[in-house]
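[Primary structure, fold]
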Amino acid sequence: MRLQLQSIGEALPGRDLPGLHVSNEMLAEAVARFRSGAHLDFPLPEPDFPKDRVGVLHRRILQHDLTAYDMSLAAARQALERAGLDRECYRVVVVSSVTYQNCIPPQAALLQGDLGLSNDVMAFDNTMGCNGFLAGVQLVGSLLRTCPPGSAGILVTSEAMTRTVDATDRHTSVIFGDAAAATVFLQGDEERVAEVAWSTQGEKGPLLAFHLSDRPVFRFHVDGDELSLREDPTNNLRLTMQGRQVFKDMVTDLPRRIQLELDRRNRKIEDFDHFAFHQANQRIVDAVVARTTIDPAKVLSNIGKLGNTSSASIPLMLADAGQSGQLQSGERILLVGFGTGYSVGISELLWP
């Protein structure tokens, strides 16, 4: 796949858009305050669970009156400005999100209009969730092959994940955060992003899924500098997951999948300068690394700052590492996505 990564833009609540940067302590206090005021009886989050069991110290929560699309637009504008390409160059717009509230029109089509791109554009959404970035990379690359030389594509990954969890569920409410990233790719003469290798175990998909709740669902609610909980009167879907089983399956499967893919590409672990895993759970990543010969010092991480941002996690991590100087031009990065749908995606990227 011949693509050049041109730029990555981000949209973080409390930095680029209205919202809050929420610590574990802030979140626990808000939940306890709500339980006391509402006279409800449910287990409170364990104080050390987010840090010790998942690796999360902070997360971003979007202002209540904004949506995943607002983050998509903000991130896309940043990425286009940084890339500096003529708007007529863009031929592909792909948006990955499981938290967009509408199916029609798709976010990608709205972005084409709001960004002032050419009408000669293929624009659509995908709902691959945790693997949305890798799926989008493959989709953008495949479509750009059919476009005129010099064409560009933009991939947006935008997830308002705190809108999907029941804030009174102590296991899922502490894990996720809201964020978006937008990545611009340009056709080029140098191979920058490799084809993505996939595996899917759809029979296990329900272990991590949205389910209808048979009781009221409460969401985190940010208004200015205030974090509270509110009942959601319009949507009783909530994210549920069998955390222990997901952990066991991924820790068992990922090392094998990684080795199979390296063998297929005739590469070794030592050929890579960095490793970028989807930021689902730091303990999963640590356990996978311990079962391979990967040098822990080469593993990128940002889950402590942002939580699990689903499809946005890998590009946000790359952007952060690039801006900090952790990534240098020409370095090779192994990308590993896993999660929703029980899919695994593996690819590699040559940093520009």
Notes: The CA atoms of residues 69 and 107 lie 7 Å apart. The radius of gyration is 20 Å. The chain has a mean pLDDT of 94. The chain has two domains: 4-186, 197-216+238-350.
